[in-house]
Design a protein that fits this description.
Its cofactor is Mg(2+). With 258 residues, this protein is α/β, with parallel strands linked by helices. The protein has helices at residues 25-34, 48-54, 56-59, 65-68, 102-116, 152-158, 163-175, 198-209, 230-234, 245-255, and strands spanning 7-10, 39-43, 74-77, 83-88, 91-97, 134-136, 141-144, 179-184, 188-193, 216-220, 238-241. 34% of the residues lie in helices and 21% in strands. 44% of the residues are buried.
Length: 258
């Protein structure tokens, strides 16, 4: 079934790729074909640096349509859309950024130091090692309970029902009510200024392009209350929930069928 939208947006980890893994050649090829028909966006709690490692090497290359002409066909929205990168003159440029107040950043880090030493959460993280688990992405702080580089097999087993992270989320919300806190990936918690989420990031982009939210479809895995993809559904944008890249690929293939 052809896609009757102007924009197709995808989450990264758990949707286009496995956690912190390079996009497969098959998925990259599907996105490349899709970009011939609609604008493709990728929004994630990950940093732009992670996009460069995980997405761009295969998606934007001399052998792809996007590699030859990414401008206007591919938009990158790291840190839950609080940053937006577009291709200009064959380089990725930061064109929009929502600031994270330094005082809020300090309060978040203080709260995390309190949580990691609380036996109720069972994290076994030394406060002096917190920087290895709480990554400051400038416009977002992401807390990864097992660290960014833990093996995917271990990540999957740690919090499959999200209950451990929901417990941490509840404590963070009590300690830092000025922050927006949602779960992402398999072990991560994304922390942004209150009121900012992926839906807001997408709406800012759409407003800049003078495109209605009705012209966008979103595909993500964390589409559940407390998940960092849920805000898109709650905002009324068309949303397709998947359980991983294996479910995303058929969605794209279906759109490419004339």
């Amino acid at each position: 079934m052809p896609l009757n939208k102007k924009i197709a947006v995808f989450d990264l980890d758990g949707t286009l790729t496995e956690s912190k893994q390079l996009i497969t050649a098959e998925m990259a090829a599907l996105l490349d074909r899709l970009a011939e028909r609609v604008i493709v966006g990728v929004i994630s709690g990950a940093s732009f640096k992670q996009f460069e490692k995980q997405l761009l090497p295969r998606l934007v290359s001399p052998r792809t349509v996007l590699g030859a002409k990414p401008a206007g066909r591919l938009v990158l929205l790291p840190t839950s859309g609080s940053q937006r990168y577009e291709s200009k003159n064959n380089q990725w440029e930061l064109v929009s950024e929502t600031p994270f107040d330094p005082s809020l950043r300090a309060k978040v880090m203080s709260a995390l130091r309190e949580i990691v030493v609380d036996p109720a959460f069972g994290l076994a993280i030394l406060p002096e090692r917190l920087a290895d688990y709480a990554e400051d992405r400038r416009t977002q702080i992401t807390f990864s309970a097992l660290g960014q580089t833990a093996p995917i097999e271990i990540k999957r087993l740690w919090d499959p029902d999200q209950q451990k992270r929901l417990k941490i989320k509840a404590r963070l919300e009590a300690l830092v009510p000025e922050a927006e806190i949602n779960l992402g990936g398999t072990t991560s918690i994304d922390i942004l200024p209150k009121g900012f989420n992926k839906a807001v990031g997408l709406k800012l982009w759409l407003a800049d392009q003078n495109i209605s939210p009705a012209e966008l479809v979103f595909v993500g895995d964390a589409v559940y209350p407390g998940g960092n993809d849920y805000s898109v559904l709650a905002a009324g944008m068309e949303t397709i929930k998947v359980a991983g890249p294996a479910e995303t690929a058929p969605v794209i293939k279906n759109w490419l069928t004339d």
